[in-house]
Write a structure and sequence with these properties.
Elements lengths: L16 E5 L2 H4 L10 H7 L16 H14 L4 E5 L2 H4 L8 H16 L3 E7 L5 H4 L8 H17 L5 E6 L1 H9 L11 H25 L4 E7 L3 E3 L4 H24 L21 H5 L5 E5 L4 E4 L7 E2 L17 H14 L5 E5 L16 H19 L4 E7 L18 E4 L4 E4 L1 H14 L1
Helix pairs in contact: 3-5, 7-9, 8-9, 12-13
Bound molecules: 5-hydroxymethyl-3,4-dihydroxypiperidine.
């Protein structure tokens, strides 16, 4: 089975960046070379991770990174998106871990040797535990600590990085981590979520200032995840609930960055749920960015069930789902991109994550992940459709390069185009990796 870059589509254009993505905690292991992070602590708590696993070893990328980069190069991709582990760079006493910096500089130099562009995410959820001990993202000081960390990283990396993203998916850090508690640090309470968002977005803004100062030539932005919401019926109630879901989970993150304000919904929240917004915060948060990263996996239908919050329905039995139970809905990606394009004054967009978990098995040395091939093809087509309708999109990254630690679901969900045998750490290219490799080879001809 092939993946095809249709003639005339952006995927057939060599200037359209195509890459693979990972994040530090999900693949690195090597926990002894860094400070503990909130996910180490979370994993130690019984019942928090579905398979009782942890990130102490993960894909052992800390030792296997050279092989992993050779593998990335073999896929013919233009770019590799990965994240820096903050607790591997800044120690609890504030000193800089030079070994941590050297690890990433080795990666950057090796990527350059292969002519692969480095897309670096500065924060992909692995907050140092020593900062969580002082309140984590509920503490405004964490945003300033982030800016200091960005200063260290950008000075050390110089011009080796093609593109920086400050944060990956602040929704997950804030809502999943501080409001519903299914992610680290596992705090639960409506009074926490929006406060955590504000400090994350402030960290983004303060980080952007450092990026502009230290690496003005490097493109810099942020990565947000979006779920396009659709009303479960034509009723006005379901439509209102759908708008509310959009305001809470999508607009709440993009509007401050692009328009410098929170949704009007802010005025309706109980005061104890509201963030403390200081003078100048919204200006800091809404500085111009060079790109907006868009992560898309699925859509959700929304119903007003009479409860306080809009109810997101599980996908119906008959629709195609991934191993996460998420509906496969490529049209949602086109709809989302058009909606963003129509509703906000956007910089160029980059699809920074798209992919699926499937129930993959290694049989006779091969992994036949046909569902992933179909998913990637249909979602690439969905991006093409948005481009054809006028949306400025400059690239696309598959999540993920490797099977890895899927957060609260541990290692059971396999998102990689490369299969990882966690016992031996052997990597095997799945059929999807082979198909992507061939598509990219054809494009280079
Ligand atoms: O694995 C995650 C990633 O870390 C962030 N975006 C969603 C992916 C799949 O759940």
């Amino acid at each position: 089975m092939d993946i095809t870059a249709k003639p005339g589509s952006p995927f057939a254009d060599p200037s359209f960046t195509i890459g693979v993505a990972t994040s530090s905690f999900q693949i690195e292991g090597g926990a002894d070379g860094r400070e503990p992070c909130i996910w180490d602590t979370f994993c130690e708590q019984p019942g928090k991770i579905a398979d009782g696993s942890h990130g102490l070893h993960a894909c052992d990328h800390i030792n296997l990174w050279k092989d992993d980069i050779a593998l990335i190069a073999s896929l013919n991709v233009d770019a590799y998106r990965f994240s820096i582990s903050w607790p591997r760079i800044i120690r609890a006493d504030g000193s800089v871990n030079q070994d941590g910096l050297s690890f990433y500089i080795g990666i950057l130099d090796t990527l350059a040797q292969h002519n692969i562009k480095a897309y670096v995410t500065l924060y992909h959820w692995d907050l140092p535990q020593y900062l969580e001990d002082k309140g984590g993202w509920l503490n405004r000081e964490t945003a300033y600590a982030f800016a200091d960390y960005v200063d260290v990283v950008t000075k050390a990396f110089g011009d080796k990085v093609y593109s920086y993203a400050t944060l990956n998916e602040p929704f997950c850090s804030a809502y999943l981590g501080y409001e519903v508690g299914v992610h680290a640090p596992g705090k639960v309470g409506k009074e926490y979520g929006k406060k955590a968002v504000h400090h994350l977005l402030l960290a983004h803004g303060l980080g952007m200032k450092v990026l502009r100062k230290n690496v003005p030539e490097t493109e810099s932005g942020i990565v947000l995840n979006f779920t396009p919401f659709y009303p479960a019926s034509d009723s006005d109630k379901d439509k209102t609930a759908t708008k509310l879901a959009h305001d809470h989970f999508n607009d709440w993150y993009i509007r401050p960055i692009i328009e410098g304000e929170y949704p009007g919904l802010l005025d309706t929240l109980p005061p104890e749920h509201c963030p403390l917004i200081e003078d100048g915060d919204m200006e800091t948060i809404s500085q111009p960015i060079d790109f907006l990263g868009v992560n898309y996996y699925t859509r959700a239908k929304v119903q007003d069930d009479g409860g306080e919050d809009p109810k997101q329905l599980d996908p119906p039995e008959e629709c195609e789902k991934t191993a996460m139970g998420w509906e496969v809905y490529p049209q949602g990606l086109t709809d989302l991109l058009l909606q963003l394009h129509n509703d906000y004054r956007l910089p160029p967009l980059l699809i920074t994550e798209n992919g699926l978990a499937s129930d993959d098995h290694l049989i006779d040395g091969a992994v036949n992940d046909e569902q992933r091939i179909r998913y990637l093809q249909t979602h690439m087509d969905a991006v093409t459709e948005a481009v054809n309708q006028g949306v400025n999109i400059t690239g696309y990254f598959v999540w993920s390069l490797l099977d890895n630690f899927e957060w609260a679901l541990g290692y059971e969900k396999r998102f990689g185009i490369v299969y990882v045998d966690y016992e031996t750490q052997k990597r095997t290219l799945k059929a999807s990796a082979l198909a992507l490799r061939d598509m990219l080879a054809n494009r280079k001809k």
